[in-house]
Amino acid sequence: MAEEMRLVLRNYGKIDPANIDDYIKVGGYQALAKARSMSQADVIEEVKKSGLRGRGGAGFNCGLKWNFAYQAQADQKYIIANADEGEPGTYKDRLIMEGDPHSLLEGMAIAGYAVGATKGYIYCRGEYPYIVELLRQAVVQAKAKGVLGDFDIEVRMGAGAYVCGEETALIESIEGNRGEPRYKPPFPPTAGLWGKPTIVNNVETLASIPVIIEKGADWYKSIGAPSYPGTKIFTLTGDVANKTFCEVPTNTTIREIIYGFGGGVVGGKFKAVQIGGTSGAFIPESLLDTPADFDSMSAVGATLGSGAVFVLNDTRDIVDTVKCIAKFFEHESCGKCTPCREGTMRMYELMKKINDGKGTKQDLALMEKLAGVMSIACLCGLGQAAPTPVVTTLKHFRADYDAKVS
Ligand SMILES: Cc1cc2nc3c(=O)[nH]c(=O)nc-3n(C[C@H](O)[C@H](O)[C@H](O)COP(=O)(O)O)c2cc1C
Ligand code: SF4
After folding, report:
1. CA distance 55 to 59
2. 3-state SS string over 115-158?
3. Which of 306, 374, 377, 402 is deepest in the core (most CB within 10 A)?
4. Who's near 396: CB < 8 A, 6+ residues apart?
């Protein structure tokens, strides 16, 4: 059986998250001191060499992103920790922040030193008010100890919009505007918060940094899948025996996660698993031996996304499930661009019609066409990925649709 490897969650359940001394006792803030003894370019090179790729969904090389902001000339630069975590079924960032908030602060301060930023923001999901308090307390303690040096961190609370997890919508929200995505380019590392170079990284990405600086890029790169090294936290929901979480090397297969850590399927036989959150692909039994790393998932037409693992047994109605997901996207579309504002609404209408037994084969073809348009014409990832559950269930579970249409 696959084994857990806790790097990001190394202190989870072992230290008092509300006490900085506990973190310091287990070596906390030593990586920041080590980073500060290196040149900025060397820190970035080490992170680049480690192969760490963003854990927020897009899988971009972290060191490369930092380098863009480092190279940019500006009087102020920013680091933003994306802790919006609005993806249903995902709670990995919550685990990090509630179990070991200083690992996030330390990762942010290292990023700040590397790119030349003196100000950081944590944009925390609105449904996590107790974590906002814990983070604010952690910042106060870190400042009192002087460990952050000239790096300042402010904690902001989101207000419940899924789209505010998109990095430019998040930036708009911090600026006090409506949380709507921006046109790109320019990308945040060159022009982000208030037009200044800004690094937006996921909490899991930033919390991976201290251990990389401490143990070195070569060590980190030797763990998991070569093209997406390190560990990944997965959160299991749905028809699994253990609705739990695990942190595993990235070459662990989906089957090992569901059957090893999840304890297998309950209430029926395995039907499907949706990986990566609400916008993720549904995959069938035949693909369960795919390693849960970014590129292996892409190769089978799926996305790793946030690492949410939503299991369905064979008593579940997959068409009805996808209809509910389509409703979610219709609700969460911010309305800024037409293909998503109209497309998510039409997609839901079609899914409802089909699920109610009133659809035709032409409706299925129309949905596929609409999905194709949305995936290329929508402004941000919300609209681009919204059709994925429809497309992948049409591909792998076509019989379930055929049984409902005339
Ligand atoms: C609709 C939408 C929601 C998103 N929500 C989140 C989120 O909750 N947390 C997150 O880290 N990234 C989220 N992202 C991805 C971010 O835009 C961005 O790619 C990420 O924060 C970059 O960090 P990383 O490079 O460390 O992965 C979302 C993207 C989209 C399109
Ligand atoms: S794709 Fe959807 S969520 Fe994104 S900008 Fe367009 S309307 Fe808004």
Report:
1. 6
2. HCCCEEEEEECCCCHHHHHHHHHHHHHHHHHCCCCCCEEEEEEC
3. 306
4. 272, 282, 283, 284
Neighbours of 360 (CB within 10 A): 12
- 266-292 per-position pLDDT tens digit: 999 999 999 999 999 999 999 999 999
- The phi and psi torsions of 258 (rounded to 5 degrees) equal -70, -45
Q: Which ligand approaches the C-alpha of residue 170 most closely?
A: 1
Which residue has its alpha carbon closest to ligand 1 atom 22? 201
**Average pLDDT for 23-34:** 98
Nearest atom, ligand 1, residue 384 CA: 31
Sheet holding 119-124, edge to edge: 152-157, 119-124, 78-83, 198-202
Go through the chain and tell me how many residues it has. Answer: 406
What mean pLDDT, rounded, does the chain reach?
97
The whole-angstrom separation of Cα 145 and Cα 125 is 27
Which backbone phi and psi does 289 adopt, to 5 degrees? -90, 10
User: What percent of the chain has pLDDT above 70?
Assistant: 100
* Ligand 1 probe mutation, 202, 333, 340, most atoms within 8 A of CB: 202
Contact present, 345 and 330 (Cβ < 8 Å)? yes
**Stated pTM of the model:** 0.97
Place of tokens 């028809």: 239
Q: For ligand 2, atom 4, name the residue with the nearest CA.
A: 380
